[in-house]
Every structure is written in C-alpha cells, then in structure tokens.
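Re-run with default settings, no changes from the original entry. Doing this only to confirm the output is reproducible before filing.
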Amino acid sequence: MQEAINYISYRNSKKLSNEIKADTHPKRIVDLNKFIEDLAKKISLKISDSKEYVEVLLSSLIEILQISRQEKFVFLLIGRTGVGKSSLINKLMDKEVTATSRRKATTLDVKFYDNDINGVKFTIVDTPGLCDDIAEEGKDQKYIELIRSEVNSIDLLWFVTPIYEPRIRRDELDGIKIITEMFGIDIWKHSIIIFTFADKADDDYLIQLEERTQDIQEAIAKVIETTTRKYTNINQIELEIARGKEIASQIPSVAADNKKSEKTPDGKNWVAELYTQAFVRISERGTIPFLLATLQRLSIPTFSSARFYNENYTQPQQIEFDENQKQQIKEKLISVIPALKYIGGKIGSFLCSITSNFTGVHLSESLGQLAGESIGENLGEKVDNFINPVIGFFISL
C-alpha cells in the first residue's frame, strides 16, 4: 500500500503537474485506469475499510479529470434549415451556444460555434443547406472542403429531422452520403437521430416514432452499403456491409418538442432522454469533457456552487433522469473511467450508503474533508471544488 501511496505522491508532485500541462494525450488516462485496476486487484481483498485506499483512487481520479478538462468535444449537426437544430443544442447545454458564428452565413456555409462552459471548450458545427434541396453544381464537394478545413474529428453527430415527415427526403439522403464519405461509416457509431416537433406527431405517436426511426436507419444502411462498394477492397466488401447494417440498426432516436414543452406525447421528459443518448453515444474522448461542461444541469445540490463556478452563479434548470437513463449513463462512465467502479464502491462503504438520490451538502463536504485530512490541504481543495460534483453524480446513479 505504501508503495502505491508513494506512486501517487510522485504523480502529484510539481514536476509531474508540469508534465501533465504539456502532455494531455488520452493515453495518460488509459495508463491511470490500468494502474487503478491493477491496484484494486492486489489490495481490495485485503483492505475492506481503508482510508489509504480511497486516497489513492481519489488522487488518480483527480488527475484523470484534470487531463480531461483540457480536452474539447465537437458536435456536428446535420438537418434541413428550420428543423430546430439550434434550439435543441441550446436547450441541452442550457445556454445560447449558437448565437454567433466565426463565419458570415451563406446558403452553403458551414457554421462553427466555439464555446466554453465551466472551463471546458467545445465546438458546435452546424451545416445549413447540407440537407436542403439546393441545385448548385459541386455542392457536395464544397461542403466537404468547408468542413474539413476546420474539423479533424467529430465526437457526436446529430441527424435532425421533423417527426411529421412521411419518409426520409432525397436532400437528407444527400447529406447522409456526404457525411459518410467524409468521415467513414464509423461516424454513425457516435450518432443520434432526433425528431423535432413531437407535438405535431400522429395520435399513434410511438408507432410513428418507431417507423420513422427504422426508415432513417435503413436509409443510412443503404448509403453505407453504396459507400462501401465504392471505396472498400473487394475482399472486405461483404463484411463491411454487414458491419454497416449493424451500426445503422443501433442508432438511437429521440423525439423533442423543442418549441413548447419538455414532454413528448407519451409524457416522457425529452431533455433527459436527449442528454442520456448524447452521453452514451459520444466518443470516449469527448465523454468526460461533455460531463464536466454539463455538471451544473445534473441535479447536483448547490453545495459550494458559488465557489465552484463563480460568485454570481445561479442554479440552472436541472435534468431529472429515470432509473433506466441513470443506468445507461453509469455504464458509459465506468467504460470510460473504470476507476469509478472501485471508487464508487469504496466511498459508498467508507462514507455512507449509496442512495438513488443525492444526499446533499454533507456528502460533498465529507468527501472534501476526508481527502483534505488524508492527503493534504491542496488535494482536499481540489476534491471539494472540482471532483465532488463528479463523485456526487456517479454515486447518485
């Protein structure tokens, strides 16, 4: 155990802090996760109620989250003009993140919106005209060049379309084709289908939602097949087509009434479902930055909130998740940071019993106090101000 403590002490030294600032490659997170898993296997059976064990895990988690906070995430929105893409993203982030663009808007332009929430940077890429029926020679190549000039990778793709359309439109198919050829079929692993104007759905809303989802999934699968036959080695074509069909069939859908209500016709909260699916489908690289940027919306009590954000902080509208949504988010968190599996269990037994709802101020303060007493005032301050919300959210799941 002392060897593990010494290891963490070294990693938290001034020298290492400088190294972290210079090198924020995700490989560091992988290395830390591996260390934590190995550590847990060696000592978890021997130590059932160990303050030192919690110290080690918390120290590693702090480093992981500090690295992640320096990363950014990128959302790509595709859909016709006027389908509600901007209002959706603004609602999800609880901020007008698409107010101004770096470019002067034109019919075939790509808009890049750079944002910063809670110190986390992210970019929203909007594509007005991509799925619009515009007759212009070389339109597809223009879009490809515009997007490639600014974007190297996408963490989450939103395909946005009104729910009341009877079927996918030709111009939407063109948009799917451009995106597939540009980023490859794996872009659809990190995508969601969003149907807007749920208030205008048919009386048999759930049937309509299922049929529209299947319609778009099949359309994406067909585009993937066409792209695969065009660009893939002949020996790999059939395997890639089968893989593409599987990817398309797994794309989830969310219906949103982004003009009036936070409830869909079946009475469910679409904001919570949109957040859940976005969190589950976002790339591994973008998962923790997205979480850190949206913590203030995740039903976290206002413990030290003015100090955590700023002195003028006001509590935003909270997102309330159901049990299924909580489970999906928890599974994704553990897949990205396996350390949480050990941390959640140890803190649950060491500090208090894990509950389905937040226990309030005392848990957060206890966590900060524990780390402060155990590993010094500096680490305790970091836990109290930065790590508490993440631990609190995870324990509540």
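The beta strands are 72-78, 111-117, 120-126, 156-162, 191-196, 253-255. Residues 70 and 189 are 24 Å apart (CA to CA).
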